[in-house]
Records
---
Amino acid sequence: MSRFTLPRDIYYGPGALEELKVLQGHKKAMIFTGGSSMKRGGFLQKTEEVLKAAGLETALFEGIEPDPSIETVMKGAQAMREFEPDVIVAIGGGSPIDAAKAMWIFYEYPEKTFEDIKTPFTMPKLRNKAIFVAIPSTSGTASEVTAFSVITDYSSGIKYPLADFEITPDIAVLDTDIPLTMPPKLTAHTGIDALTHAIEAYVATARSDFSDALALKAIGDIFDNLVDSYHGDKEARGKMHIAQCLAGMAFSNALLGIAHSLAHKTGAVFHIPHGCCNAILLPYVIQYNSRVCMARYAAIARYLGLPGGTDKQLTDSLVKAICGLNKELNIEQTYAANGVSEELYKEHADAIAHNAVLDPCTLANPRPIDDAAMKEVLACAYYGKRVTF
Ligand code: NZQ
Ligand code: MN
Protein backbone atom coordinates (compact mmCIF):
# COMPACT_ATOMS: atom_id res chain seq x y z
CA MET A 1 0.00 0.00 0.00
CA SER A 2 1.14 3.52 -0.70
CA ARG A 3 -0.07 6.68 0.97
CA PHE A 4 -0.38 10.32 -0.11
CA THR A 5 -1.21 12.81 2.64
CA LEU A 6 -1.93 16.53 2.55
CA PRO A 7 -3.67 19.04 4.86
CA ARG A 8 -7.45 18.86 4.69
CA ASP A 9 -7.89 22.51 3.67
CA ILE A 10 -5.72 25.08 1.94
CA TYR A 11 -6.90 28.70 1.81
CA TYR A 12 -4.92 30.86 -0.58
CA GLY A 13 -4.67 34.21 -2.32
CA PRO A 14 -4.38 37.86 -1.26
CA GLY A 15 -5.91 38.44 2.18
CA ALA A 16 -6.46 34.72 2.84
CA LEU A 17 -5.72 35.35 6.54
CA GLU A 18 -9.39 36.36 6.84
CA GLU A 19 -10.28 32.71 6.34
CA LEU A 20 -9.03 31.94 9.85
CA LYS A 21 -12.64 32.70 10.77
CA VAL A 22 -13.37 29.05 9.89
CA LEU A 23 -11.91 28.25 13.32
CA GLN A 24 -15.10 29.57 14.93
CA GLY A 25 -16.30 27.00 17.45
CA HIS A 26 -12.81 26.36 18.80
CA LYS A 27 -11.98 27.91 22.16
CA LYS A 28 -8.34 28.80 22.55
CA ALA A 29 -5.73 29.56 19.90
CA MET A 30 -2.05 29.80 20.72
CA ILE A 31 -0.08 31.73 18.11
CA PHE A 32 3.59 30.93 17.44
CA THR A 33 5.94 33.16 15.49
CA GLY A 34 9.59 34.10 14.94
CA GLY A 35 11.28 37.44 15.62
CA SER A 36 9.58 40.64 14.55
CA SER A 37 8.82 40.26 10.81
CA MET A 38 5.19 39.25 11.23
CA LYS A 39 4.52 42.09 13.68
CA ARG A 40 6.27 44.63 11.41
CA GLY A 41 4.08 43.58 8.50
CA GLY A 42 0.91 43.78 10.63
CA PHE A 43 0.15 40.09 9.95
CA LEU A 44 0.40 39.01 13.57
CA GLN A 45 -2.11 41.66 14.67
CA LYS A 46 -4.48 40.67 11.84
CA THR A 47 -4.24 37.00 12.86
CA GLU A 48 -5.13 37.89 16.45
CA GLU A 49 -8.00 40.12 15.31
CA VAL A 50 -9.60 37.50 13.06
CA LEU A 51 -9.31 34.80 15.73
CA LYS A 52 -10.78 37.06 18.43
CA ALA A 53 -13.63 38.12 16.13
CA ALA A 54 -14.37 34.40 15.62
CA GLY A 55 -14.76 34.06 19.39
CA LEU A 56 -11.42 32.46 20.31
CA GLU A 57 -9.26 33.43 23.25
CA THR A 58 -5.65 33.93 22.06
CA ALA A 59 -2.14 33.75 23.53
CA LEU A 60 1.16 34.53 21.85
CA PHE A 61 4.54 32.76 21.92
CA GLU A 62 7.13 34.73 19.98
CA GLY A 63 10.87 34.81 19.49
CA ILE A 64 11.36 31.42 17.80
CA GLU A 65 14.84 31.65 16.24
CA PRO A 66 15.86 30.64 12.70
CA ASP A 67 16.94 26.95 12.73
CA PRO A 68 15.04 26.34 16.00
CA SER A 69 16.64 24.45 18.88
CA ILE A 70 15.43 21.55 21.05
CA GLU A 71 15.40 23.99 24.01
CA THR A 72 12.98 26.36 22.23
CA VAL A 73 10.75 23.40 21.39
CA MET A 74 10.64 22.30 25.04
CA LYS A 75 9.89 25.87 26.22
CA GLY A 76 7.03 26.22 23.74
CA ALA A 77 5.55 22.85 24.72
CA GLN A 78 5.54 23.98 28.36
CA ALA A 79 3.74 27.20 27.33
CA MET A 80 1.16 25.09 25.49
CA ARG A 81 0.61 22.92 28.56
CA GLU A 82 -0.05 26.06 30.62
CA PHE A 83 -2.46 27.75 28.16
CA GLU A 84 -4.10 24.52 26.91
CA PRO A 85 -4.99 25.62 23.35
CA ASP A 86 -7.30 23.57 21.16
CA VAL A 87 -5.83 25.27 18.07
CA ILE A 88 -2.13 25.86 17.38
CA VAL A 89 -1.52 28.64 14.85
CA ALA A 90 2.04 29.00 13.52
CA ILE A 91 2.78 32.07 11.40
CA GLY A 92 6.20 32.82 9.92
CA GLY A 93 8.99 31.08 8.05
CA GLY A 94 9.76 27.38 8.15
CA SER A 95 11.51 27.82 11.49
CA PRO A 96 8.55 28.87 13.68
CA ILE A 97 6.20 26.47 11.85
CA ASP A 98 8.62 23.56 12.37
CA ALA A 99 9.21 24.48 16.01
CA ALA A 100 5.47 24.66 16.71
CA LYS A 101 4.96 21.23 15.10
CA ALA A 102 7.54 19.69 17.44
CA MET A 103 6.06 21.57 20.45
CA TRP A 104 2.68 20.07 19.53
CA ILE A 105 4.07 16.54 19.97
CA PHE A 106 5.36 17.30 23.49
CA TYR A 107 2.13 19.14 24.34
CA GLU A 108 0.12 16.03 23.55
CA TYR A 109 2.74 13.63 25.01
CA PRO A 110 4.58 15.40 27.87
CA GLU A 111 6.37 12.18 28.86
CA LYS A 112 8.08 11.78 25.47
CA THR A 113 11.68 12.88 24.93
CA PHE A 114 13.35 14.20 21.77
CA GLU A 115 15.13 10.82 21.46
CA ASP A 116 11.73 9.06 21.37
CA ILE A 117 10.54 10.91 18.26
CA LYS A 118 13.71 10.98 16.15
CA THR A 119 12.98 7.79 14.23
CA PRO A 120 10.95 8.68 11.11
CA PHE A 121 7.33 7.56 10.92
CA THR A 122 7.02 6.32 14.51
CA MET A 123 5.13 9.22 16.06
CA PRO A 124 2.12 8.71 18.33
CA LYS A 125 -1.36 9.92 17.29
CA LEU A 126 -1.83 13.67 17.67
CA ARG A 127 -5.01 15.84 17.67
CA ASN A 128 -6.22 14.66 21.09
CA LYS A 129 -5.68 18.18 22.41
CA ALA A 130 -5.32 20.50 19.42
CA ILE A 131 -5.37 20.90 15.66
CA PHE A 132 -2.61 22.69 13.73
CA VAL A 133 -2.89 25.69 11.40
CA ALA A 134 0.17 26.90 9.46
CA ILE A 135 0.59 30.29 7.77
CA PRO A 136 3.87 30.52 5.82
CA SER A 137 5.62 33.87 5.39
CA THR A 138 8.52 32.63 3.24
CA SER A 139 8.17 30.82 -0.10
CA GLY A 140 10.39 27.80 0.33
CA THR A 141 10.14 25.15 3.03
CA ALA A 142 6.40 24.46 2.53
CA SER A 143 6.29 23.34 6.13
CA GLU A 144 2.57 24.31 6.01
CA VAL A 145 1.86 21.13 4.02
CA THR A 146 4.71 18.79 4.95
CA ALA A 147 5.16 15.90 7.33
CA PHE A 148 8.49 17.35 8.51
CA SER A 149 9.87 19.49 11.28
CA VAL A 150 13.57 20.30 11.21
CA ILE A 151 15.03 20.87 14.68
CA THR A 152 18.67 21.59 15.49
CA ASP A 153 20.56 19.96 18.35
CA TYR A 154 23.14 22.67 19.04
CA SER A 155 25.08 20.44 21.45
CA SER A 156 26.05 18.12 18.57
CA GLY A 157 25.59 20.63 15.73
CA ILE A 158 23.17 18.27 13.97
CA LYS A 159 19.87 19.19 12.30
CA TYR A 160 17.22 16.50 12.69
CA PRO A 161 14.34 16.24 10.23
CA LEU A 162 11.48 14.81 12.31
CA ALA A 163 9.09 13.05 9.97
CA ASP A 164 5.57 11.67 10.25
CA PHE A 165 2.23 12.35 8.57
CA GLU A 166 0.86 12.99 12.09
CA ILE A 167 2.56 16.42 11.98
CA THR A 168 1.17 17.36 8.56
CA PRO A 169 -0.89 20.47 9.44
CA ASP A 170 -4.70 20.37 9.33
CA ILE A 171 -5.11 23.76 7.66
CA ALA A 172 -2.65 25.80 5.56
CA VAL A 173 -3.28 29.48 4.84
CA LEU A 174 -1.27 30.81 1.88
CA ASP A 175 -1.91 34.52 2.10
CA THR A 176 0.06 35.89 -0.85
CA ASP A 177 0.31 39.34 0.80
CA ILE A 178 2.65 37.95 3.47
CA PRO A 179 5.73 36.97 1.38
CA LEU A 180 5.66 40.46 -0.21
CA THR A 181 7.70 41.74 2.74
CA MET A 182 10.59 39.29 2.16
CA PRO A 183 13.92 40.98 1.33
CA PRO A 184 15.57 39.85 -1.96
CA LYS A 185 18.15 37.49 -0.42
CA LEU A 186 15.51 35.59 1.57
CA THR A 187 13.37 35.41 -1.59
CA ALA A 188 16.31 33.91 -3.50
CA HIS A 189 17.35 31.39 -0.85
CA THR A 190 13.85 30.15 -0.07
CA GLY A 191 12.98 29.99 -3.79
CA ILE A 192 15.94 27.72 -4.55
CA ASP A 193 15.01 25.62 -1.52
CA ALA A 194 11.63 25.05 -3.20
CA LEU A 195 13.28 24.19 -6.53
CA THR A 196 15.50 21.67 -4.77
CA HIS A 197 12.45 20.10 -3.11
CA ALA A 198 10.74 19.63 -6.47
CA ILE A 199 13.80 18.26 -8.28
CA GLU A 200 14.77 15.90 -5.46
CA ALA A 201 11.14 14.71 -5.18
CA TYR A 202 11.01 14.03 -8.94
CA VAL A 203 13.86 11.49 -8.71
CA ALA A 204 13.31 10.22 -5.13
CA THR A 205 12.71 6.53 -4.46
CA ALA A 206 9.24 7.16 -2.95
CA ARG A 207 8.00 9.25 -5.89
CA SER A 208 4.57 8.55 -7.36
CA ASP A 209 2.32 9.77 -10.18
CA PHE A 210 0.83 12.23 -7.68
CA SER A 211 4.18 13.68 -6.64
CA ASP A 212 5.55 13.73 -10.21
CA ALA A 213 2.73 15.97 -11.43
CA LEU A 214 3.14 18.39 -8.54
CA ALA A 215 6.95 18.43 -8.79
CA LEU A 216 7.07 19.17 -12.55
CA LYS A 217 4.49 21.95 -12.30
CA ALA A 218 6.44 23.46 -9.40
CA ILE A 219 9.75 23.31 -11.30
CA GLY A 220 8.24 25.07 -14.32
CA ASP A 221 6.57 27.78 -12.23
CA ILE A 222 9.74 28.39 -10.21
CA PHE A 223 11.86 28.81 -13.36
CA ASP A 224 9.18 31.15 -14.74
CA ASN A 225 8.81 33.32 -11.64
CA LEU A 226 11.74 33.22 -9.22
CA VAL A 227 13.94 35.86 -10.87
CA ASP A 228 11.01 38.29 -11.25
CA SER A 229 9.99 37.60 -7.66
CA TYR A 230 13.59 38.30 -6.57
CA HIS A 231 13.38 41.66 -8.35
CA GLY A 232 10.17 42.51 -6.48
CA ASP A 233 7.46 41.65 -9.04
CA LYS A 234 4.29 41.26 -6.97
CA GLU A 235 2.51 38.77 -9.19
CA ALA A 236 5.62 36.57 -9.48
CA ARG A 237 6.00 36.68 -5.68
CA GLY A 238 2.45 35.35 -5.34
CA LYS A 239 3.06 32.62 -7.94
CA MET A 240 6.21 31.54 -6.06
CA HIS A 241 4.17 31.21 -2.85
CA ILE A 242 1.89 28.71 -4.57
CA ALA A 243 4.71 26.96 -6.49
CA GLN A 244 6.72 26.29 -3.32
CA CYS A 245 3.58 24.73 -1.82
CA LEU A 246 3.16 22.43 -4.83
CA ALA A 247 6.81 21.39 -4.36
CA GLY A 248 6.07 20.76 -0.68
CA MET A 249 3.10 18.55 -1.48
CA ALA A 250 5.40 16.54 -3.76
CA PHE A 251 8.35 16.09 -1.40
CA SER A 252 6.29 15.52 1.72
CA ASN A 253 5.15 12.31 0.05
CA ALA A 254 8.03 11.45 -2.33
CA LEU A 255 10.71 12.48 0.20
CA LEU A 256 13.99 14.15 -0.74
CA GLY A 257 17.63 13.18 -1.34
CA ILE A 258 21.26 13.94 -0.54
CA ALA A 259 21.16 17.64 -1.42
CA HIS A 260 19.01 17.90 1.69
CA SER A 261 21.13 15.45 3.72
CA LEU A 262 24.17 17.65 3.06
CA ALA A 263 22.22 20.92 3.41
CA HIS A 264 21.02 19.87 6.87
CA LYS A 265 24.55 18.98 8.01
CA THR A 266 26.49 21.83 6.35
CA GLY A 267 23.86 24.43 7.32
CA ALA A 268 24.34 23.74 11.02
CA VAL A 269 28.17 23.67 10.87
CA PHE A 270 28.94 26.38 8.29
CA HIS A 271 26.10 28.71 9.40
CA ILE A 272 24.75 29.12 5.89
CA PRO A 273 20.97 29.49 5.36
CA HIS A 274 19.22 26.28 4.35
CA GLY A 275 18.18 27.46 0.88
CA CYS A 276 21.64 28.76 0.08
CA CYS A 277 23.15 25.34 0.95
CA ASN A 278 20.72 23.72 -1.48
CA ALA A 279 21.58 26.26 -4.18
CA ILE A 280 25.24 25.34 -3.84
CA LEU A 281 24.68 21.56 -3.68
CA LEU A 282 21.95 20.87 -6.23
CA PRO A 283 24.10 20.88 -9.43
CA TYR A 284 26.72 18.52 -7.93
CA VAL A 285 24.05 16.20 -6.57
CA ILE A 286 22.39 15.99 -10.00
CA GLN A 287 25.77 15.04 -11.50
CA TYR A 288 26.24 12.33 -8.85
CA ASN A 289 22.70 10.92 -9.19
CA SER A 290 22.62 11.12 -13.00
CA ARG A 291 24.46 7.78 -13.16
CA VAL A 292 21.19 6.10 -12.13
CA CYS A 293 18.40 8.49 -13.14
CA MET A 294 19.57 10.54 -16.12
CA ALA A 295 16.29 9.95 -17.96
CA ARG A 296 14.38 11.61 -15.11
CA TYR A 297 16.58 14.72 -15.17
CA ALA A 298 16.30 14.77 -18.98
CA ALA A 299 12.50 14.74 -18.62
CA ILE A 300 12.71 17.83 -16.40
CA ALA A 301 14.96 19.56 -18.94
CA ARG A 302 12.57 18.67 -21.77
CA TYR A 303 9.63 20.02 -19.74
CA LEU A 304 11.55 23.29 -19.31
CA GLY A 305 12.32 23.42 -23.03
CA LEU A 306 16.09 23.28 -22.46
CA PRO A 307 18.39 22.33 -25.36
CA GLY A 308 19.86 18.85 -25.93
CA GLY A 309 19.26 15.74 -28.02
CA THR A 310 20.50 13.01 -25.67
CA ASP A 311 19.66 12.46 -21.99
CA LYS A 312 23.25 13.39 -21.16
CA GLN A 313 23.02 16.70 -23.03
CA LEU A 314 19.65 17.47 -21.45
CA THR A 315 20.96 16.71 -17.94
CA ASP A 316 23.95 18.97 -18.56
CA SER A 317 21.49 21.66 -19.74
CA LEU A 318 19.52 21.30 -16.51
CA VAL A 319 22.67 21.72 -14.41
CA LYS A 320 23.62 24.75 -16.49
CA ALA A 321 20.15 26.27 -16.11
CA ILE A 322 20.29 25.89 -12.31
CA CYS A 323 23.76 27.49 -12.15
CA GLY A 324 22.46 30.28 -14.40
CA LEU A 325 19.47 30.81 -12.11
CA ASN A 326 21.77 30.98 -9.07
CA LYS A 327 23.87 33.56 -10.87
CA GLU A 328 20.83 35.73 -11.60
CA LEU A 329 19.95 35.49 -7.90
CA ASN A 330 23.51 36.47 -6.92
CA ILE A 331 24.19 33.15 -5.19
CA GLU A 332 27.79 31.92 -5.48
CA GLN A 333 28.07 28.31 -6.65
CA THR A 334 30.56 26.90 -4.06
CA TYR A 335 30.96 26.83 -0.27
CA ALA A 336 34.38 28.47 -0.69
CA ALA A 337 32.86 31.40 -2.60
CA ASN A 338 30.19 31.68 0.10
CA GLY A 339 32.86 32.44 2.66
CA VAL A 340 33.47 29.03 4.29
CA SER A 341 37.18 28.88 5.13
CA GLU A 342 39.17 25.86 3.98
CA GLU A 343 40.18 25.28 7.58
CA LEU A 344 36.56 25.05 8.78
CA TYR A 345 35.63 22.85 5.82
CA LYS A 346 38.55 20.43 6.38
CA GLU A 347 37.96 20.25 10.11
CA HIS A 348 34.35 19.14 9.66
CA ALA A 349 34.25 17.33 6.28
CA ASP A 350 34.44 13.79 7.73
CA ALA A 351 31.73 14.40 10.33
CA ILE A 352 29.47 16.21 7.85
CA ALA A 353 29.79 13.35 5.35
CA HIS A 354 29.16 10.70 8.00
CA ASN A 355 26.15 12.51 9.50
CA ALA A 356 24.75 13.26 6.03
CA VAL A 357 24.78 9.55 5.18
CA LEU A 358 22.75 8.94 8.35
CA ASP A 359 20.24 11.72 7.56
CA PRO A 360 16.79 10.25 6.77
CA CYS A 361 16.77 12.06 3.39
CA THR A 362 19.61 9.78 2.20
CA LEU A 363 17.24 6.78 2.26
CA ALA A 364 15.13 8.30 -0.53
CA ASN A 365 18.06 9.32 -2.74
CA PRO A 366 17.96 7.48 -6.09
CA ARG A 367 21.64 6.45 -5.91
CA PRO A 368 23.09 4.84 -2.77
CA ILE A 369 26.04 6.58 -1.16
CA ASP A 370 28.66 5.86 1.51
CA ASP A 371 30.76 8.16 3.70
CA ALA A 372 33.65 8.36 1.19
CA ALA A 373 31.45 9.26 -1.80
CA MET A 374 29.48 11.78 0.30
CA LYS A 375 32.78 13.44 1.25
CA GLU A 376 33.71 13.60 -2.45
CA VAL A 377 30.40 15.25 -3.39
CA LEU A 378 30.97 17.74 -0.57
CA ALA A 379 34.50 18.42 -1.84
CA CYS A 380 33.13 19.12 -5.34
CA ALA A 381 30.61 21.57 -3.83
CA TYR A 382 33.31 23.19 -1.73
CA TYR A 383 35.81 23.76 -4.55
CA GLY A 384 33.45 23.81 -7.56
CA LYS A 385 34.59 20.63 -9.31
CA ARG A 386 32.38 18.57 -11.62
CA VAL A 387 31.24 15.23 -10.09
CA THR A 388 32.53 12.53 -12.43
CA PHE A 389 32.29 9.35 -10.32
O1 NZQ B 1 12.15 35.72 12.75
P1 NZQ B 1 11.49 36.72 11.89
O2 NZQ B 1 11.57 38.11 12.43
O3 NZQ B 1 10.09 36.33 11.51
O4 NZQ B 1 12.37 36.83 10.51
C1 NZQ B 1 12.59 35.74 9.66
C2 NZQ B 1 13.98 35.13 9.83
O5 NZQ B 1 14.91 36.08 10.25
C3 NZQ B 1 12.61 36.24 8.25
N1 NZQ B 1 11.29 36.31 7.61
C4 NZQ B 1 10.38 35.32 7.49
N2 NZQ B 1 9.33 35.73 6.75
C5 NZQ B 1 9.55 37.02 6.42
C6 NZQ B 1 10.79 37.41 6.97
N3 NZQ B 1 11.28 38.65 6.82
C7 NZQ B 1 10.55 39.54 6.12
N4 NZQ B 1 9.35 39.24 5.57
C8 NZQ B 1 8.82 37.99 5.69
N5 NZQ B 1 7.66 37.70 5.08
O6 NZQ B 1 13.38 35.27 7.56
C9 NZQ B 1 14.38 34.74 8.43
C10 NZQ B 1 14.50 33.25 8.21
O7 NZQ B 1 13.31 32.61 8.62
P2 NZQ B 1 13.22 31.01 8.62
O8 NZQ B 1 11.88 30.64 9.13
O9 NZQ B 1 14.39 30.44 9.33
O10 NZQ B 1 13.39 30.69 7.06
P3 NZQ B 1 12.83 29.50 6.16
O11 NZQ B 1 11.41 29.67 5.87
O12 NZQ B 1 13.76 29.37 5.03
O13 NZQ B 1 12.96 28.20 7.10
C11 NZQ B 1 14.17 27.54 7.27
C12 NZQ B 1 14.02 26.38 8.23
O14 NZQ B 1 13.12 25.38 7.70
C13 NZQ B 1 13.78 24.09 7.66
C14 NZQ B 1 15.22 24.48 7.48
O15 NZQ B 1 16.10 23.43 7.80
C15 NZQ B 1 15.35 25.67 8.43
O16 NZQ B 1 15.48 25.22 9.77
N6 NZQ B 1 13.15 23.23 6.64
C16 NZQ B 1 11.94 22.72 6.89
C17 NZQ B 1 11.30 21.82 6.06
C18 NZQ B 1 9.99 21.25 6.39
N7 NZQ B 1 9.42 21.56 7.52
O17 NZQ B 1 9.41 20.48 5.62
C19 NZQ B 1 11.93 21.35 4.84
C20 NZQ B 1 13.03 22.22 4.38
O18 NZQ B 1 13.83 21.47 3.50
C21 NZQ B 1 13.89 22.80 5.47
O19 NZQ B 1 14.87 21.86 5.90
MN1 MN C 1 14.61 22.38 1.97
Note: Residues 34-38, 66-67, 92-95, 98, 137-138, 140-141, 143, 146, 148-150, 159, 178-179, 181-182, 186, 190, 193, 260, 274-275 surround 5,6-dihydroxy-NADP (ligand 1) (CB under 6 Å).
---
Amino acid sequence: MATNITFTMLKPDAVENNYIGAILQKINEAGFRVKAMKYTRLSTETAGQFYAVHAARPFYNDLVSYMSSGPIVAVILEKENAVADFRDLIGATDPAKAAPGTIRALFAKSIEANAVHGSDSDENAAIEGSFFFSALEQF
Ligand code: CMP
Protein backbone atom coordinates (compact mmCIF):
# COMPACT_ATOMS: atom_id res chain seq x y z
CA MET A 1 0.00 0.00 0.00
CA ALA A 2 1.25 3.51 -0.81
CA THR A 3 2.54 5.63 2.06
CA ASN A 4 1.68 9.33 2.28
CA ILE A 5 5.24 10.68 2.12
CA THR A 6 7.46 11.77 -0.76
CA PHE A 7 10.70 13.72 -1.07
CA THR A 8 11.60 16.54 -3.46
CA MET A 9 14.53 18.80 -4.14
CA LEU A 10 14.20 22.15 -5.84
CA LYS A 11 17.35 22.00 -7.96
CA PRO A 12 20.02 24.67 -8.54
CA ASP A 13 18.28 26.01 -11.70
CA ALA A 14 14.99 26.50 -9.81
CA VAL A 15 16.77 28.36 -7.00
CA GLU A 16 18.91 30.42 -9.41
CA ASN A 17 15.82 31.46 -11.41
CA ASN A 18 13.94 32.53 -8.27
CA TYR A 19 11.26 29.86 -8.67
CA ILE A 20 11.23 28.59 -5.06
CA GLY A 21 8.02 30.43 -4.15
CA ALA A 22 6.18 29.64 -7.39
CA ILE A 23 7.06 25.94 -7.24
CA LEU A 24 6.12 25.59 -3.56
CA GLN A 25 2.80 27.31 -4.32
CA LYS A 26 2.05 24.74 -7.05
CA ILE A 27 2.96 21.96 -4.63
CA ASN A 28 0.67 23.35 -1.90
CA GLU A 29 -2.18 23.96 -4.37
CA ALA A 30 -1.94 20.30 -5.41
CA GLY A 31 -2.70 19.31 -1.81
CA PHE A 32 0.78 18.52 -0.44
CA ARG A 33 1.85 19.63 3.03
CA VAL A 34 5.46 20.47 3.91
CA LYS A 35 6.76 18.14 6.67
CA ALA A 36 10.39 19.32 6.61
CA MET A 37 12.28 21.84 4.52
CA LYS A 38 15.94 22.89 4.25
CA TYR A 39 17.79 25.42 2.06
CA THR A 40 21.27 23.99 1.63
CA ARG A 41 24.01 23.11 -0.83
CA LEU A 42 25.32 19.69 -1.78
CA SER A 43 29.05 19.06 -2.10
CA THR A 44 30.21 16.89 -5.00
CA GLU A 45 30.60 14.10 -2.45
CA THR A 46 27.07 14.36 -1.02
CA ALA A 47 25.53 14.83 -4.51
CA GLY A 48 27.39 11.70 -5.60
CA GLN A 49 26.00 9.78 -2.61
CA PHE A 50 22.45 11.01 -3.18
CA TYR A 51 22.52 9.92 -6.84
CA ALA A 52 24.66 6.79 -6.27
CA VAL A 53 21.90 4.68 -7.84
CA HIS A 54 22.78 6.39 -11.17
CA ALA A 55 26.57 5.89 -10.79
CA ALA A 56 26.80 3.68 -13.89
CA ARG A 57 24.81 6.07 -16.12
CA PRO A 58 26.64 8.20 -18.71
CA PHE A 59 25.15 11.41 -17.26
CA TYR A 60 26.26 10.70 -13.66
CA ASN A 61 29.37 12.92 -13.50
CA ASP A 62 27.59 15.87 -15.12
CA LEU A 63 24.62 15.35 -12.79
CA VAL A 64 26.82 15.36 -9.67
CA SER A 65 28.66 18.46 -10.81
CA TYR A 66 25.39 20.21 -11.70
CA MET A 67 23.63 19.29 -8.44
CA SER A 68 26.53 20.71 -6.42
CA SER A 69 26.78 23.90 -8.52
CA GLY A 70 24.44 25.97 -6.33
CA PRO A 71 21.94 25.87 -3.45
CA ILE A 72 18.95 23.54 -3.43
CA VAL A 73 15.82 23.22 -1.28
CA ALA A 74 15.18 19.76 0.20
CA VAL A 75 11.56 19.07 1.17
CA ILE A 76 9.59 16.18 2.66
CA LEU A 77 5.95 16.28 1.54
CA GLU A 78 2.80 14.61 2.79
CA LYS A 79 -0.33 13.74 0.87
CA GLU A 80 -2.37 10.63 0.26
CA ASN A 81 -0.70 8.65 -2.57
CA ALA A 82 2.20 11.12 -2.36
CA VAL A 83 4.82 9.45 -4.60
CA ALA A 84 2.58 8.86 -7.61
CA ASP A 85 0.65 12.12 -7.28
CA PHE A 86 3.88 14.12 -7.01
CA ARG A 87 5.34 12.49 -10.11
CA ASP A 88 2.15 13.43 -11.98
CA LEU A 89 2.51 17.00 -10.70
CA ILE A 90 6.14 17.40 -11.85
CA GLY A 91 5.82 15.66 -15.24
CA ALA A 92 8.39 13.75 -17.31
CA THR A 93 12.13 13.96 -16.51
CA ASP A 94 12.73 15.72 -19.84
CA PRO A 95 10.80 19.01 -19.72
CA ALA A 96 10.34 18.84 -23.51
CA LYS A 97 8.21 15.73 -22.88
CA ALA A 98 6.49 16.95 -19.69
CA ALA A 99 2.72 17.47 -19.94
CA PRO A 100 1.54 21.09 -20.13
CA GLY A 101 0.96 22.63 -16.70
CA THR A 102 3.36 20.28 -14.89
CA ILE A 103 6.15 21.82 -12.81
CA ARG A 104 8.89 20.73 -15.20
CA ALA A 105 6.95 22.00 -18.24
CA LEU A 106 6.53 25.36 -16.50
CA PHE A 107 9.91 25.83 -14.81
CA ALA A 108 12.58 23.42 -16.15
CA LYS A 109 15.25 24.21 -18.72
CA SER A 110 16.68 20.83 -19.75
CA ILE A 111 16.73 17.13 -18.83
CA GLU A 112 19.57 17.84 -16.38
CA ALA A 113 18.46 21.24 -15.06
CA ASN A 114 14.90 19.98 -14.66
CA ALA A 115 13.83 22.15 -11.71
CA VAL A 116 12.77 19.41 -9.30
CA HIS A 117 13.51 15.88 -8.16
CA GLY A 118 10.72 13.53 -7.10
CA SER A 119 11.14 10.15 -5.38
CA ASP A 120 10.22 7.18 -7.57
CA SER A 121 8.98 4.83 -4.80
CA ASP A 122 7.87 4.83 -1.16
CA GLU A 123 11.13 3.11 -0.23
CA ASN A 124 13.27 5.75 -1.94
CA ALA A 125 11.16 8.56 -0.48
CA ALA A 126 12.08 7.31 3.00
CA ILE A 127 15.77 6.87 2.10
CA GLU A 128 16.01 10.29 0.41
CA GLY A 129 14.16 12.12 3.18
CA SER A 130 16.50 10.57 5.75
CA PHE A 131 19.48 11.70 3.66
CA PHE A 132 18.65 15.32 4.58
CA PHE A 133 16.56 15.15 7.78
CA SER A 134 16.73 13.33 11.10
CA ALA A 135 13.50 11.84 12.43
CA LEU A 136 13.22 14.75 14.88
CA GLU A 137 13.23 17.27 12.01
CA GLN A 138 10.22 15.66 10.26
CA PHE A 139 7.03 17.21 11.60
P1 CMP B 1 15.97 13.19 -11.16
O1 CMP B 1 14.51 12.87 -11.12
O2 CMP B 1 16.50 14.03 -10.09
O3 CMP B 1 16.82 11.82 -11.22
C1 CMP B 1 18.03 11.68 -11.90
C2 CMP B 1 18.42 12.90 -12.66
O4 CMP B 1 19.43 12.73 -13.63
C3 CMP B 1 17.24 13.42 -13.44
O5 CMP B 1 16.26 13.93 -12.56
C4 CMP B 1 17.91 14.44 -14.34
O6 CMP B 1 18.09 15.68 -13.70
C5 CMP B 1 19.29 13.82 -14.56
N1 CMP B 1 19.52 13.39 -15.93
C6 CMP B 1 20.42 13.93 -16.76
N2 CMP B 1 20.41 13.32 -17.93
C7 CMP B 1 19.47 12.34 -17.86
C8 CMP B 1 19.00 11.35 -18.78
N3 CMP B 1 19.47 11.24 -20.03
N4 CMP B 1 18.02 10.53 -18.36
C9 CMP B 1 17.52 10.63 -17.08
N5 CMP B 1 17.94 11.54 -16.19
C10 CMP B 1 18.91 12.40 -16.57
Note: The beta strands are 5-10, 33-40, 72-78, 116-118.
